[in-house]
């Protein structure tokens, strides 16, 4: 059975919402934690309201990311690229299992990174003849950068219920894709 750890900043909004949705959708072992989380805080009111409205039961107490949680996890999915990068810096032994959620789901993400590195190398080699060819490579770089930078799940903290609803819908969409991906990998 797969152990999944969702990580956000304070472990009161996005990661507990992701945990609740995933527990509702699957049989996998799921936990959540926060990079700057305190111990034992409840989920935010907006998170609780949205989950309740969707009929997803959930009790939550925040917890910080720890070595033992990362050892427990087979897969660590963060809500932003900054969360991913901080974890990879602090827990270098776990880097091979830490991803931003959207990055992990999107099969084109890895390809976009490869193409972006190649385009930068091409630009740096300055083997491009003519301004038109350089402009084409720069347009390609701009397009690819947008693709690889768009991996953050929106943070509803401090927002109204509509903001939490929007984050729920975003997470629900990506977690449905995650379930499909993991079911296909486990066949």
Automatic annotation (TrEMBL):
<protein>
    <submittedName>
        <fullName>Low molecular weight protein arginine phosphatase</fullName>
    </submittedName>
</protein>
<comment type="similarity">
    <text>Belongs to the low molecular weight phosphotyrosine protein phosphatase family.</text>
</comment>
<dbReference type="InterPro" id="IPR023485">
    <property type="entry name" value="Ptyr_pPase"/>
</dbReference>
<dbReference type="InterPro" id="IPR050438">
    <property type="entry name" value="LMW_PTPase"/>
</dbReference>
<dbReference type="InterPro" id="IPR017867">
    <property type="entry name" value="Tyr_phospatase_low_mol_wt"/>
</dbReference>
<feature type="domain" description="Phosphotyrosine protein phosphatase I">
    <location>
        <begin position="2"/>
        <end position="131"/>
    </location>
</feature>
<keyword id="KW-0378">Hydrolase</keyword>
<keyword id="KW-0904">Protein phosphatase</keyword>
<dbReference type="InterPro" id="IPR036196">
    <property type="entry name" value="Ptyr_pPase_sf"/>
</dbReference>
<dbReference type="Pfam" id="PF01451">
    <property type="entry name" value="LMWPc"/>
</dbReference>
